[in-house]
Design goal:
Layout: E1 7-12, H1 23-36, E2 40-43, H2 48-59, E3 63-68, H3 73-79, E4 89-92, H4 96-107, E5 110-114, H5 118-129, E6 134-137, H6 147-151, E7 161-164, H7 167-194
Parallel strand pairs: 1-2, 1-5, 2-3, 3-4, 5-6, 6-7
Helix pairs in contact: 1-2, 1-7, 4-5
């Protein structure tokens, strides 16, 4: 039996015109590294940064799950004009973007932010409030380059947020943090069973 992999969400701008010109290739590298490290990529089944991360995961032979805002494949393609080709599984939530963001973020073990606009900020705040491990790929533009400044204004330090400019290091650090969290949770459950 194969041990289940961690689910790592990549959140970022669907339209990359606001992103640093290197953000596209960095997203591909993040997707590759998630797959290399035996994890499952989770995205919003959309264009831009999430799509490029799915390309990277597929290049490395990884598995990619997309959560769509649409309720059907037809609506996903025709109404939302979103891709289907790089995702192994697409869940058609029917919850529009805000509902999709909530489900996508909560279904992952950690979230990595690359570039981003308002939707990415929404996904970040969901992960932050849920105290989910967050990795921020700095230097990619948009939301990713605003988070450190926002959190420096005195917000709760309870949520683990990791910053890096290297996609390989960022993914490794996030996976190590997820493993630590899961080991701690499993140890707590085992202790409670003994008591």
């Amino acid at each position: 039996m194969i041990k289940p992999s961690y689910k790592i969400c990549v959140s970022g701008a669907a339209a990359i015109d606001i992103c640093n010109p290197t953000a596209k290739e960095l997203a591909v590298q993040v997707g590759r590294e998630i797959a290399k490290q035996g994890c499952i990529l989770v995205t919003g089944a959309t264009t831009g940064i999430p799509y490029y991360s799915a390309i990277g995961a597929k290049e490395e032979g990884g598995y990619s799950i997309g959560l769509s805002p649409a309720s059907t494949e037809k609506a996903h393609i025709k109404s939302y004009k979103l891709p289907v080709d790089k995702f192994d599984l697409i869940v058609y939530t029917g919850f529009e973007y805000a509902g999709r963001n909530l489900l996508m973020t909560r279904s992952a073990d950690a979230v990595i932010i690359i570039c981003g606009r308002t939707g990415t900020m929404n996904e970040f705040t969901i992960a932050f409030e849920d105290e989910k491990p967050i990795g921020v790929l700095e230097g990619t533009g948009g939301t990713a380059d605003m988070i450190r400044l926002l959190l420096a204004k005195g917000y709760r330090p309870k949520t683990p947020v990791i910053y890096d400019t290297d996609p390989v290091k960022l993914v490794s650090r996030i996976i190590a943090l997820v493993k630590k969290e899961k080991d701690k949770n499993n140890k707590k459950v085992e202790t409670e069973k003994i008591i």
